[in-house]
Amino acid sequence: MVDISGSMAGEKIRHTQVALASILRTLKPGDRFNVLTFTNDVYKWRPKFVEASEGNIASCIRFLMLLQAHGGSDIRKALLSSVKAFQGVPSGYRSIFLLSDGKSTVGSTKPSIILRSISRACEGTIAIFCIGLGDDVETHFLSSLAEDNEGRYLQVDPVEPTAVTQLGEFYESRLNPVLYDLHLKYDDRVVSNSSVIRKERLGYIDGEELIFAGKVSHRSAGDSMNMSVSGYNAEGLVILDKPLPLSRRPPEVPGRTRRSVSDNSGDVILEKIWAILRVEELARRARLARSAADRISAATELLRLSLDHGYVTPVTSLTEPYSKDKRGSSWFNLTRVELPFRNQGISIPRQLPNLQLATPIAQRLLSYPGSRVFGDPHFVIDIPGCNLTICFDVQQRQGTIVNLISDPLTGLDVSGEITEDALSNVNSDEITSLFGRIEIRSSIHIVNITPSEIILDTKRSLSWTEPSSIKIGTIIVRLVDRGNLTISLQDGVTLFIQRHKRVQHPTFFDFALANGSSLSNRADGMIGKFHGRASVNPQCELSPHPPRTTLEYDHRNIPVRRRSNKLLPSSFCWHGNAEDFLGGPIERYVTTEPMIAR
């Protein structure tokens, strides 16, 4: 793929033509290739892949020498066209080489949207190698595109005399991997399947490191485990098998002093290596997740690994706040960033003095009995007086205001305004709707919670950047940190709100009702209707097996299925249709009354 947009004009395009000619001459008999150029539109040199014959290579070089830079650049459209070109191509090592400055000016221009849509299109079957041309290159975008699709990134200045040599070496080594379509086989009675990192790889490049890692869960099988790595080369299937020692101590190497960590065991070092690889995999999974639930699941495990091993990851930050400790020691806080839930009171064994976790609100959004809404929006309701948790999903369009709690006797009214995630428009019609604003009203006061501030009675406001506490009438508003807000009402109702601020995506809120017993039996709303209603008489407990069954609730038989909680593996809920649980259409809870603006 060659970028011939206006930003490639001048020396860039001329040197790129020379470099491409050199690359094409490295093709071997049996290789098949095609060249795609793009600006606002996409152009193919040939309709389909062709053999790398001398005549085809010479023809392609003549085509390249006629190219002229012009127009804009639609990288996403060009990449999707390249991926589509592999349809119907016989199995083998499939790769795309993108030569560009990474600047997309037409169509989808947000790097995060391009990265997600291309990774989904490739589905782990096509490697993408990116070559950044020049010194004004979108390095982060191009390197992320290569990393997400099992490729590599190279930045060269086409003007440099060594540029042609660099491109030729980079292309030749990666065009012909030693093995492709690699697959790891092992004894899953000994190694935990969920712990194994990337059992399948597209290719192994000569001279590069290839690591498979997993956790041994059961050592009773003996001192070793049979494992194999299979793949293909020009001659066919290749299987590399070797017994893997399961001894707790690493083998001694003559003449080398064995280094150790903590308990003088190599297991600790190996676990650290495994954790680093797992962190990289989870960060990629969270970045490319298709849904909020998948993102939260990956980010939650990422946070746990960070706390267990003392790593700073994309969901944590390491800070040294001010301390009056005169003994010379420092207090380090490893805290979460852009993550809905975090653990409390976890000590991190790390070579930093007094390393600990600062966690004001902790896991209450998940663990206390009550009702909570998180993600896109996923409602989880603990039915009062029962050992029963139900859950359902609600999807609405941008700007829709839904009523969460409405109690005419206590005067409490809680509403949430939907905001759509831009990612929902990438590839399909699916909606990713989140709560972008929450309004809480008592009989005489209003608290309006927005991404930028917390507005009290339209007159005063609190900034999310400064922890504080304030009382207005019978309402106590306490901002614990930049993401956690507690609102306490005089009648005993406590509400928790968590703010999730994200880069290039809408800020959204999770919401929880900690104590709904103070609501009257006339309470309504998507959450309120499930509290204070003694007349419902639900079926209070279901056997976890089978996973699909029927729940008797409010004199209705509701089809449900058992859904595990990815954030709390020990818990689960019975998931059903929202309208079945609510007893009517969702539109009944949509309000046309606008939220109060400051």
Description:
By secondary structure, the protein is an alpha+beta fold. Helices cover 20% and strands 28% of the residues. It contains ten helices and 32 strands. The strands form seven sheets. The protein has an eleven-stranded mixed beta sheet with strand order 24-25-26-27-28-15-16-17-31-30-29. Strand 20 (433-441) and strand 21 (446-449) form a beta hairpin. Helix 7 (266-288) runs antiparallel to helix 8. The longest helix is centred in the middle third of the chain and has 23 residues, at 266-288. Mean pLDDT is 77; it is low at 249-265, 320-368 and 424-429.
In this structure, how is the largest beta sheet organized? 11 strands, mixed
Rg, Cα atoms, Å: 29 Å
- The count of helical stretches stands at 10
| Percent range for β-strand residues | 25-35%
Point out poorly predicted stretches: 249-265, 320-368, 424-429
* Average pLDDT score: 77
Kindly report how far apart the N and C termini lie: 51 Å
Shape field? globular
* Order of the strands making up the biggest sheet: 24-25-26-27-28-15-16-17-31-30-29
Question: What oligomeric arrangement do these chains adopt?
Answer: single chain
Number of strands: 32
Indicate the percent of residues in helices: 10-25%
Computed structural class? alpha+beta
